[in-house]
Amino acid sequence: MPRLTPITSKDQVAPEHHAIADAVIASRGGISGPFTMFMHCPDIAAHMEALGGYVRFQGKLDMRVRVLAAMVVGREFDALYVWGAQAGIARKLGVPESTITAIREKHARGVPAEDAQIIEFTRDLLRKHRVDDVTAQALIERFGHEQFIELTGSIGYYSLLAMTVNACELPPGPGQEVLKV
After folding, report:
1. Same domain as 49, residue 79
2. Burial class of residue 170 (count of CB atoms within 10 Å of its CB; 0-12, 13-18, 19+)
3. Could you tell me the pTM of the whole model?
4. pLDDT at 56
5. How high is the mean pLDDT of the chain?
6. How many structural domains are present in the chain?
7. Shortest CA distance to 112 belongs to which of 91, 135, 95, 88?
8. Phi first, then psi: what are they for 9, rounded to 5°?
9. Of 26, 29, 82, 164, which residue is the least packed, with the fewest Cβ within 10 Å?
């Protein structure tokens, strides 16, 4: 049960924040998931809507790469909502079940090298707060400067989502895989 009452309608916020609710609804089809918590602080919701809109829908970084990074973030933070949402998207994108299992079990054995690179980069940033020069250079060569920053920014965005859903005890969405923590 979430710690805060989910805000799922613009009628639940003050009229001066209706434009923010409308923007969230327009970009996501409704107020759901972490935004049901972010709307308790509409200004943060507005900034998260803008950043998330870029990270999720507008960036140049391959969606599969974004989802792999988001899954690792969800797992590293044991964020039930983030894990459930991202595991479902990963399956729709054709990510092998063996890769999903490796992320869930916190290893990268048997994962294709390109996926393992994303998994290890994300884990290093989250666990060590740094990446080594060899890893960074390999990713810059693979993606270029702009997408290297998009990947790093995606990890930051999903980390903020994970912290929020954990602080608010937001459960996985209906029909989503439940991460055992």
Report:
1. no
2. buried
3. 0.94
4. 87
5. 95
6. 2
7. 95
8. -145, 145
9. 29
